[in-house]
Specification:
By secondary structure, the chain is α+β, with helices and mostly antiparallel strands. It has helices spanning about 25-30, 35-50, 60-65, 70-75, 80-95, 120-130, 155-160, 165-180, 180-195, 200-215, 220; strands at about 60, 100-105, 110-115, 140-145. A hairpin with a 2-residue loop joins strand 2 and strand 3 (about 110-115). It is globular.
């Protein structure tokens, strides 16, 4: 972007200005680590949203963030690109440990909620896991997933090992999360890196192969293949093609 294309800021308003408080760790510990603009914007947005709340149970719902047009305006041009960047930002912030992500059930739907990884935030999440829903603005039926993720989620794995997540790739990754166990996805990325075949097409073929033949066969684990073993995928332009080594 050239200087001529930069959008201007007219300056802060005269008179009384509203401020929000942010922990010093934002500048001393988090800022040096964050290398993704969507993640940085998401963290700042989450602090602003959490500051608007009251009481000990404060959280940001992903659905609310995806409906905030001002927030999304800084996440890309097209709506799909904006939504993908916002989802990635929240996921990375949770994976990094700035936010705590839980999945709650409301009626027939599931929602992602984010709490600050602070003493109050951790205490609130603990109460929710125990079935204590007092203090919530929104009614919920249950906490579906309440454990912080120990492994990188699929979006972070893709960015760390392949490249930037585009809206088209984001949809494929979300579908893979629905189709395959989390551990399989992590192991498939690891196997692709080990074999120096860092493409989503290759990783997806590994997952498909595991689903069809089983994950722990010799050909899948990297142990020497014997006659009759199941072949593992090789990177080709033909979907579903498997070649014996």
């Amino acid at each position: 972007m050239t200087d001529d294309a930069l959008k201007g800021f007219p300056g802060f308003h005269a008179g009384k200005t509203r401020y929000i408080r942010v922990p010093v760790e934002i500048f001393s510990e988090i800022l040096p680590l964050v290398d993704d603009l969507a993640e940085l914007k998401t963290i700042l947005y989450a602090f602003w949203q959490l500051y608007q709340g009251s009481g000990d149970v404060r959280y940001v719902r992903l659905n609310d963030a995806l409906a905030d047009l001002i927030f999304l305006a800084g996440m890309g041009e097209a709506p799909a690109e904006q939504a993908a960047a916002a989802r990635r930002g929240f996921a990375r912030a949770a994976q990094r440990g700035v936010l705590i992500e839980i999945t709650v059930k409301r009626g027939e739907k599931e929602e992602l909620w984010y709490f600050l990884n602070s003493p109050k935030g951790r205490a609130a999440v603990k109460r929710l896991r125990q079935g204590d829903f007092q203090g919530l603005i929104h009614d919920i039926d249950d906490v579906i997933v309440g454990l912080e993720k120990e492994r990188p989620n699929i979006f972070l794995l893709y960015e760390q090992n392949i490249g930037m997540v585009t809206p088209m790739i984001a949809e494929k990754l979300r579908q893979a999360e629905r189709d395959y166990p989390e551990g399989w996805i992590y192991d498939a990325f690891s196997l692709a890196v080990e074999r120096n075949s860092r493409t989503w097409a290759y990783i997806h073929r590994i997952l498909q192969n595991w689903a069809q033949y089983g994950k722990d066969t010799p050909a899948q684990t990297g142990r020497p293949a014997r006659s009759g073993d199941i072949p593992h995928p090789q990177e080709t332009d033909e979907p579903g093609l498997f070649i014996h080594e």
